[in-house]
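User: Can you recover a sequence for this backbone? Please restate the input before giving your answer.

Assistant: Of course. Working from this structure:
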């Protein structure tokens, strides 16, 4: 199958610290895709576009016409961890894995076909948040024994090291984010399996269930960390509204109460994750995105 990886994927992989390794993977992608298709006995229809920032998704079908999706990700994305999380959820609140025989050793996952063009972002904001909370409730379960997942403390420790080197324009917010992280990780907390990258765009319409999540970056930790990314969904709309800081605080409180999460812990993780994302966007040259994230963080 001859194809070009979506430019969104090419750009995103080029912005990471291991861009050389990603470039090598992109160069091998046509061969890797052909081998993964043959190994699983499915045929490609087309590349899903614009696609994601960290993987390629091919819409495929079995010989009998049954639709599916084949996802290929570079080694740095740890597709083995994604497979472990999806297998543990077993399709309850998440996309279902159709083939576990190959255990993601080739960086490919064969998944049920959802409707990639219809995510929670297609719903009005209040309805989208309600459905998002219902999906999260299904995902927050005890992790499997001997799991391969990082903890929130481990993941954010690496991110904190980068934040300590933030440029002067981010320094004050970085200092506040680092302080709140120290406080949040000081004592042992919940140890639940988390999506790790949950937001409205990661919840797609399905056939066997109205809404199913995709694309986890799984880890183990407290619910407030997982919920924090959802707080800033549709960020441009939030920044453009007249509600400002008061609106951001109201959303934190509403989401925390909806899922019985501590309000201050959710506010703290929302602050840390917004500053970390803003600093990363600034380093990658995405200044507009960085400015929005840092403005939002300042409200908290």
């Amino acid at each position: 199958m001859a194809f070009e990886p979506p430019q969104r994927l090419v750009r995103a992989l080029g912005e990471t610290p291991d861009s050389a390794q990603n470039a090598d993977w992109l160069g091998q992608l046509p061969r890797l895709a052909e081998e993964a298709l043959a190994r699983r006995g499915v045929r490609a229809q087309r590349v899903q576009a614009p696609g994601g920032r960290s993987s390629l998704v091919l819409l495929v079908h079995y010989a009998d016409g049954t639709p599916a999706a084949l996802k290929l990700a570079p080694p740095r994305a740890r597709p083995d961890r994604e497979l472990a999380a999806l297998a543990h959820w077993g399709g309850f609140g998440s996309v279902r894995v159709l083939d576990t025989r190959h255990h993601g050793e080739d960086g490919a996952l064969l998944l049920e076909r959802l409707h990639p063009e219809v995510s929670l972002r297609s719903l009005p904001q209040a309805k989208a948040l309600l459905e998002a909370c219902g999906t999260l409730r299904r995902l927050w379960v005890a992790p499997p024994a001997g799991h391969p997942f990082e903890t929130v403390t481990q993941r954010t420790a690496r991110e904190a090291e980068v934040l300590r080197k933030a440029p002067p324009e981010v320094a004050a917010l970085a200092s506040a984010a680092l302080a709140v992280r120290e406080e949040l990780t000081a004592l042992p907390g919940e140890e639940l399996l988390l999506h790790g990258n949950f937001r409205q765009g990661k919840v797609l319409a399905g056939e066997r269930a109205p809404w199913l999540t995709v694309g986890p970056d799984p880890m183990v930790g407290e619910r407030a960390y997982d919920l924090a990314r959802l707080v800033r969904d549709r960020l441009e709309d939030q920044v453009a509204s007249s509600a400002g800081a008061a609106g951001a605080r109201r959303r934190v409180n509403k989401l925390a109460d909806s899922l019985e999460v501590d309000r201050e812990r959710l506010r703290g993780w929302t602050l840390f994750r917004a500053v970390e994302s803003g600093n990363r966007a600034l380093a990658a040259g995405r200044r507009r995105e960085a400015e929005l994230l840092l403005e939002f963080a300042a409200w908290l």
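That completes the design. The longest strand covers residues 56-61.
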